[in-house]
Amino acid sequence: MDSLNSAVQEKLDEAMPWIGLYIAAASAVCTLAMAADAFNGFTSKKLWLPCNYFSMNAASLTLLAVAMKLPMDLNTYLLYQADWHAKICSLLFMSISMSNFMSSLGSMTDKEIRTNMAALGILVITIVVNMWIQTFQLRGYFHTHMMIAALISTILMLLLLGTFFSSAISLPTSKRSLESKYQEMHRVAMREEEIVKRTQGLKIDQRMIAGMKKYWVMAETSNPQFVMARSVFCTTSSVICLFAASILQVVYIGYFKRSHKVTIGESASVYGYYTKWILIVQSHGGYCGIIAPVSRWLIAVRFKCLTICHEISFAKEIEIEEHWIQTLKYWRDSFSVIQIRDGKCRKYIHDVKWFALTFLIRVQIMMVLLNKLLWFIPALLITPFVLCFKKFKTRFLDKVTTSNEDMRSESGCSVELNLNRFVLLLDGEQELPQRTLKDICDQADKVMKIGMKQQPENLLQLLNKFGNFSSVREFDSLQVPSLHSQEPPNCWTLPLATLTSIAISLPNIAINHKATQLVSSVSEGLSLAMLIEKTLDQNGELMNIRNAADVAWAGVAIYRKWQQVDLRRISLDYKSSKNLIQELSSHAEMTVLEFKRKANDFLMENPLNGQLVL
């Protein structure tokens, strides 16, 4: 029996190197995603490095779960120093990855925050418990410093998890506050635009540029990821990430100091030589992953230093704003959703909930205070160096400063616009530096320049050639009796696609280049019209009809077919435009009647289902 067990175990161990390769590959994908975010942030001059590729979602958490196979492995013998170095490296890689995608919390909905936080919490707690079991069970077989490094690594993960939860609790309130301020400043911008129209008489392009910059500043400064990146919790996660990177460096140097060299062909465990590949990939991934947290930390400390240069108020620094604890207060004071008829039992449950949430509110207050101190103290230490640099710059770089101010004025951040008023901040946040505001304005200028270079030339030619489009409005007339009892909502894209389909099927247009030119022009216009309708359709009432227009236009633009009718063939069959239009009208009527006859009520609610019936 023992020989059989040994044979089975040997067969299973033969596959373990492939598992090691899988772990290394998952770690490499995470590393590349973090590097892509860093590259994208620096190239777009968003030094807070938003999470576009490596964010907190199901894919990233799954990859991290695969990459954490070594710390969660309890059944495989990993009794070599190299294996424990790889385990600790995996723990630190997890901490750095968590710090890297923390700002992505801001871009999630409340439901996504709950589900992703639950998944992250389960993953972290599983890793920590497994690692503690291994550490205490094998404490007599390894050096003490290895055990201490493993425990510190797990503690860092738990601290980061607590920071995640504290930040997630305050996010819904912060978003609502910023949304309220955005709506208020939107009304201010609209009033100012009306005043400018009546008094100053600026040209329409100047008013549009000024209005665009106002809304651009509001959108960028209220960007949830940017708000998260400059928050105290994200700053603390960056500090923890730096500490984890320091431990990673010590572990990595210690590994090479003991092994003297890395020979890829060596095998130290059942994972084979891929154990060292895991160590190398995750170590380099950790070094790559600290770029974003360090950049965010430097930006946050720079903001705080500029504030301290003008005023130092310790009482103001330790003030707890309402948005940090408002959600917990609402949960505490609201009536319990549990329906219990017994009044005493219901009162007991409510009291327990009240005391529990009161305790959590105090914990949240302590977390905010500690995070603020971790932000304030480094900024206070760095402020003297910032002041010295500013004096040096004032004394020796006056000309450069003057030219930069002129460039700032030319870029549109002038006093006339006063864009500082449109910077959206949470309560207690310090004002953004002028350099940051200038970078935001430069991004708007860059987008406008790209738009000027990449204008829809075909659409402009069509608009210049035909200045009056009243016939389009007449075509979409309510005087035409509807074939369906449910009148579809008013939409521009579907009538435009239908009218263009009719136009390119006419005999004098279909046989020459005019049809191709018209399709190209309308395609450029439809993309803009669809974007506008999607933006204005806040309630999603036009979603089905927009989808129907998109599907119908795809058939026209690619295959020259409208409702399965070949427009090229029908233009050859009918020499008279009137007869051709009557044929298309008859086909459309038959399509609608056939749809009504075959489709059920729930299908009739979606115009796209007309394509399925056919």
UniProtKB/TrEMBL annotation:
The keyword Transmembrane helix applies. The chain crosses the membrane at residues 20-39, 51-72, 84-103, 115-133, 145-171, 232-254, 274-294, 373-389. Keywords: Membrane, Transmembrane, Transmembrane helix. This is Uncharacterized protein.
